[in-house]
Design goal:
Helices cover 25% and strands 36% of the residues. With 162 residues, the chain is an alpha+beta fold. It is elongated, with a radius of gyration of 19 Å. The strands form three sheets. The chain has a three-stranded antiparallel beta sheet, with no helix packed on it. The protein has a three-stranded antiparallel beta sheet with strand order 3-4-5. Strands 7-9-8 form a three-stranded antiparallel beta sheet, with no helix packed on it. The protein starts with a helix and ends in a 5-residue tail after the last strand. It has a single domain, classed as Enolase-like, domain 1 (2-Layer Sandwich). The protein is built from three helices and nine strands. Helix 1 runs antiparallel to helix 2.
Amino acid sequence: MTDQSAEGKIAAALDRKTRQDEIEWRVMRAGKTGAGRIYCQIVPYRTARSVYSQLDEAVGKMGWNSKIQTTDKGAVCELSIKMGEQWVTKTDGAPYTDIKALKGAISDAHKRVAVLWGIGRDLYDYPVVWAEISEQKQRGDQWRRAKTKEGTIFWWRPPESI
C-alpha cells in the first residue's frame, strides 16, 4: 500500500498552479466587428515540454512514463506515474493537427492526459482574454502575426501577466 503522505505530496506537485513562465498563448478567435475593428480572443496553454518538466519535478525522471498509440484519426497517450511500488495509468487522446499532424497529435495527447493528473487544469478557469492588437506591422519578440476569419492580417501580443 502506498504511503498517503507520499501520494499527497505527488498530488500537490501535479496540481500546483501553472507558473506565469509556463504559459503560452494562442488565438482562439479573431475577426472584425460590425464597425470594422479587429478583435482577437486568446487562450493560455502549456507546451508539452513544460508538462514533462512538471512531471519530472513531481515524481522524478524515472517516476513517470508514457506510451503513444496512433490511429487513423490521431494519437492516444497512456501516462503512467509510479505510486509507491505500483504504476497508475490514465489515458486520453487528440486528433491530428493542421500543422505537423502526427507531432501535434502526440504533443496534444500528452497535454490532455496530463490534465487528468492535474497538470495545467487551472488554465481552464482563466477569464476571457482579449489581446492587444495592431493593424500596422509591429516588431519585437512579443508581437505575433495572425489573420482574422475574413483574412485581414494583424499583429497581436499577449498580456504581460494575468
